[in-house]
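Hi W.,

Here's what went into the run:
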Amino acid sequence: MAARPDPRRDRTVQRRTPGDPSLDIARFPAVQRLLRSRAFPLGLVVAGQVVMWLVVAAGFLGAAVPGRNFATVFTWYFWFAVFLLLTVTVGRGWCLVCPFGGQAQWLQRLSFTGRGRRSLTLGWTWPARWGRWGLIVSAGLFILVTWAEEFFRAAAPGDPVFTAYFALFMIALALATFLLFERRTFCRYLCPLSAVVGVAGATGVVAGFRARNPDRCLTCATKACVRDAQDGHGCPWYVWPASAESNLLCGLCAECFKRCPYDNVGLFVQPPLTSVVEPSHRRLDAAWAVALLLGLAVFQQVNALSAYRRLDAWLNRTLHFPGYPNPLDYVGIICLVAAVAGGGVWLTMRALRREGPPAEGGSFAQWFTPLMYGLSPLMASDILARQLPKLWGHVLSVLPAAANPFALHRGLWGASASPLWHLRLVAPGAVVPTQLVVVGAGLAASLYATARIVRGELDGMTDRPRLVHAVSTAAILGVGAAIALLYLAMRGTP
Amino acid sequence: MSHRAGFDVPQTRRPRVHVDAERCAGCGECVDRCPTAALWLDATGVVAADPALCVGCRQCERTCPFRAIRVEGPLLVEPRMAPAPLRPVRLMDDREAEEGIESFGAAVREALRCLHCPDPTCVLGCPAHNDIPGFIAAICELDLDHARSILASSSVMPEVCSRTCDAFALCEGACSLALAGGEAVSIRLLERFVTDHTAAPPLPVRSTRAKRLSVAVVGSGPAGLAAAGELMSRGAHVVVFEREPRPLGALRWAIPAFVLPDEVADLSLERLLEAGLELRTGIAVRGGDIPALLSIHDAVILAHGATVPGAATVSGANLGGVETAERFLARAKVALATNRPLEDVRAGARVLVVGGGGTAMDVARSVRRLGGEAVVADPRDERTAASGREKLRAALAEGVRVRYETDVVRLTGERGVVAQAWLARRRRLGVPRPAPEAVDHVVLVTGAFVDPEPARGLLATLPVPLESLPDAADWRWVTSGLMAGHTAAARGRDAERILERAALPVGAGVWAAGDALAGPGTVVAAMAQGRRAGEGVLAAMPVRTDPTGLRVLTTGKEFVAAVDED
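Here's what came out:
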């Protein structure tokens, strides 16, 4: 038997990194100074903390009218839309400033700046069999939280106290996870927002922190970027800069940048959709998360239709469920969309993959995963477009709400009587066109991405590549058209 | 050389490696450290394992920064050899008690258990950082002389260390096999086998850069001799000042001959004397002598040991028949060597040894050889007792009784001589109730302290408090997986901090090592610090071109003398 080469001597980093120095914004001295400073991202997280606790306080103590309460106004008219916008443009930009994880991490590390000698956590490791499906768990929690938000009408708008409860739920979940598990287990495997940020953020232009020269990392004796030691912490997201090839998981915290002993880590930007098109290592759970989140986005369009309202009412009467949305139709519609996506890919695969052993024609996962990655820009645009009515109609009320968070008689600068309460950013008649523009952009991005993906990954698994291209293009156009028609039918309903 | 144990073990009884592909980032730390090359990175950049090669040492598990790899199942290594046999204890017999490995074959069999880890944690656990895999590999290759030369490159007295080290808490405690829950390689006994069966090589001369240097060393114990050896290997002239009439310090008077025979202890000193060491005994160096020494020598290294006995705080310590361990050991050693029993500790005497640690075991075993009954009252519990596994095993085998969590509340006597010891067992709840026990003699292990006199007037406070020393931020302690709360890791890190300090001067032209630097410690730690102090002296000396055109280390004293002669 031939001797296998000694794996310790013969090794390269298999996964790709951008590598192009011109895309490394950390080469600029001002950016370097900022990233090395322990005030980054502490300052951003502190700012987020202030707002978060103001939301909680306002939810309990502020105006009873939801449209006048800072908690409701900030969270549902401003924050969620901005969160999505940040996600699709930057990537995990939200995670950088997230107050839930940021606060819990302070407690876990017993330090604000990440250099405490002790830590307050049991340090458990997330079980591997759950970790493999982490993004599905996150998407599932997001779906659950969204159901609760719909049921209690927190953003409908409903009683502002439910917004406070939502924030407290996130705080409690984050704290509990950080105190039980190591690093950012919550952020990577549990956070309801993680799947949305991860899969939607693949369209973003920030690649994250990557090794400038991955080969240098192979000979690094410290791996300080990933190891906890007494002078600091390793990557809390379980990302090694030398092998990261998408922005799916890098939380932009800059720990690796601060700790690399060879100044070999940079902050790279990338053309949009790079993390959709280029990864060679794709995750099946991310693919299913895209399908489920698309189902959720579609539900949030369908629920504005009278046909749905009748169905929901009938189910609630029949099953004696207290109110909208009935879990059966809620989960049913979401899973139906996901099933259609999965079923459509399966049928396409069965019809068009190369005959012979599965290795030749690929498995279901090998077809489904890249195609869902291609669909992710359209999914993200749908979720973003759904927030636009609230954003255009009420975002300016954030200012007077912030000036009078506890609904005092007049508030700062006469906030209670501010005309901004009633001012719209976009006229009602222009809401649907803006939604269609956003969906159109997502559609174009998905068409482009899917074409690249099919050419790069599926062509080798079929004898009829042109037909695969045609089917995938038609499917995306069909989904896009359905989404657009639903927005037309909704007529700008928030 | 790779390990072959378990080659024919069926798959169902082999260790199983589980890689969490979702969390594995492909950094390759585990691949780099696997001693059997059982791991590699597959095409997706995730670690894969060959179960046919895995022996279950779990280094991959310990080193993975993301805990992405887990090993289940047995450790496939041959069982550790039986402990070295002990010579039966006989009255007035001071011959070496431990007999060492019985044959070359047995030594090779034990050496073959070593995995020859690419990142050997045993080296970290050893305060002297001996090349343990190296000398063990030489044994496997049946080349004992080469093994001896490897030991000599980092240890000036391997024959002493192999008899006095508490290897269980040091190198063997950091052995990968021990960290994996198995039995460590018998590193200490293998080291002793090499030293017992080979002639010591002459002191290696690595360079002559220091041939213009002259260094005074205060103390002829392990720290002083190690410093001398390091300096002489670079060509320096070394003068060792020893207060006592006989050299070797604690190696001579504090360790019984049945643990470390005098003729063995003398070997390292003889090598240095043959190489040109100048030894002056019977000279006590005081703090006020340092400037005078520095006017003659280029540097002074303080390596005087802890010789001042601690205060006896137990009530009744001033009774007759009560003495310190240092005094007793010195008397017992003479008595056993000359076959003259002690008047106050004869056959059948009931001797209570108060205190724990290796010294208490040495005292108790000496009592046994003098014919007495020995009971050790150790205030610590059994898990945290400091006596060392090997010493405890030997003591128990020789009939010593040890009572843990036992305090001596007071000693009472009759006609000015101790007759009763009031012992109290520590209780979790409630007040301990002392009970009297009849005793004929009491030996108090009070510890020893460093005589502050030689260091008087120095800038640094000696001994240096451990908590004042920065942590030795050597990444090997983190990346090797040794930082897992293991005892060897904690002791090793502390030893590393002191080692770093030993390289730095404690005053103008003055260095310190061993007990003088950091308080009472082990022989191997003192030796390592002495060597580091020697390196520190060499690093601090200016480099000049001598009259012959050679670049040498010198402070210029000799040049001044040479100019005067001209």
